[in-house]
Amino acid sequence: MNTATLSLTHREREVAELVALGLTNRQIAAKLFISERTAEFHVEQIRNKLGFHTRSQIAAWMALDQPRPRPIDAAPFSALPDDSTKRQRLRPSLRLAVLGLAAATVLAASGLVAVSLRSHAPVPASPTRGRVLQVDAGSGQPTRWSSPLSTRASTLAVGMGGMWSVSYEDKVLTRIDPKTAAVLGSYGVPAPPVGITVGGGLVWIAAAFGDTALEPFDPKTNQFGQPVSLGSGVAPQGIAYGWNSIWVTDKNKDLVYRVDPSTSMVTNRIAVGDGPEAIAVDASGVWVANGVEGTVSRIDPQSSRVVATIGLREAPTAIAAGPSGVWVVSESADLVVRIDPVTNQPLEIPIDAHPTEVSVTRNDVWVAEGPAGRILRIDQRSNRVMSSIAVGGRVDALSADDQSVWIAVHGS
């Protein structure tokens, strides 16, 4: 594979440029008005697309004569340049500093990528890197349930008799017994997984890139099925199940794909706002958080069309839907936003936290502050924070069912 022919998205090139200038993920997030987690995700996606392992390799690649957008100063999303923005090269000093490394790292990329995209074989056990914890949804108290993971989880889902975790870093699907906390199996996936959902009798995994970026996994046989092609040049970000369909966001093309799980065919391609990321489904519709535009698109499942676009004050970080409404968190604004599905009106709920994840149970909303290792419990009737739980590590993912809240953490 020739890395010169690989296509980064416009936002990925912006991030790569800032990486080359030596900025940290936090500094990149501040420059581009995105969350630190989104910046980290973009860096990981760039590394995997190019077959690199380090930030210095990204800097070296950027030093080559590749067309790319200029660095961006802090500005509102409306001021960000579009694809027609004038391109310019890196400063000569930076080019000279990294040009010597460039040739070696770029030439080595093809072998690295080829190795990572082969097998679905079970993954051997390795030392514990993270764990999944349980909170009782009724009492709001942590239980003694704890499942150690050999990978760092990036997304969780529950259903089909299992707790399911995927690791973006390690490209692994892990199956956990929700009763005993035992790990029942770990399976390698071809490309870094960005999302997971359960529906139609299968577990569905969305990968960060690739012509076959949607993979079904049969929990009865513990085998992967035939991958679903979403098209070329896709960049999936989120995935959800509802209305007898799989829904996948594509941040590269600003689309949502609707997939029939019984035929594994794409039935609709729906244009949404700029930079669709997280997605949630409930009885009232499909809700898409557009991270670049700072809006939520509402899709009518009956017509597969966007019927409303709800503006937000800041970019959304995560979204969840439940009986009392749609819940959006914004890490950059320290906000929880509740959207009324009847009126499409947003209600802002300021909180003393930088929210990174959100899930909904029957009576409560659960908000994670990832770096701080906190879970906030919000009462849906009063919109007030009722309690705060320290989980003893950084929160990486959150999921919930009627009885429990499931939390993936790492560190201490």
Task: Write structural notes for this entry.
With about 400 residues, the protein is an alpha+beta fold. The protein contains 5 helices and 28 strands. The strands form 7 sheets. It has a 4-stranded antiparallel β-sheet with strand order 2-1-28-27, with no helix packed on it. It has a 4-stranded antiparallel β-sheet with strand order 3-4-5-6, with no helix packed on it. Helix 1 crosses helix 4 and helix 4 crosses helix 5. The chain is globular, with a radius of gyration of 21 Å.
Approximate strand percentage = 35-45%
Instruction: From the 3D structure, determine the CATH topology of the largest domain.
Output: Methylamine Dehydrogenase, Chain H
Radius of gyration: 21 Å
Structural class: alpha+beta
In the predicted model, the low-confidence regions spanning at least 5 consecutive residues are: 1-5, 67-119
Quick rundown:
The protein is α+β, with helices and mostly antiparallel strands and 412 residues long.
What is the secondary structure topology, with strand pairs?
Layout: H1 10-20, H2 25-32, H3 36-50, H4 55-62, H5 92-116, E1 130-136, E2 142-149, E3 155-159, E4 162-167, E5 172-176, E6 183-188, E7 193-199, E8 202-207, E9 214-218, E10 223-224, E11 236-242, E12 245-250, E13 255-260, E14 265-271, E15 276-282, E16 285-290, E17 295-300, E18 305-311, E19 318-322, E20 325-330, E21 335-339, E22 346-350, E23 357-360, E24 364-369, E25 374-379, E26 384-390, E27 394-400, E28 404-410
Antiparallel strand pairs: 1-2, 1-28, 3-4, 4-5, 5-6, 7-8, 8-9, 9-10, 11-12, 12-13, 13-14, 15-16, 16-17, 17-18, 19-20, 20-21, 21-22, 23-24, 24-25, 25-26, 27-28
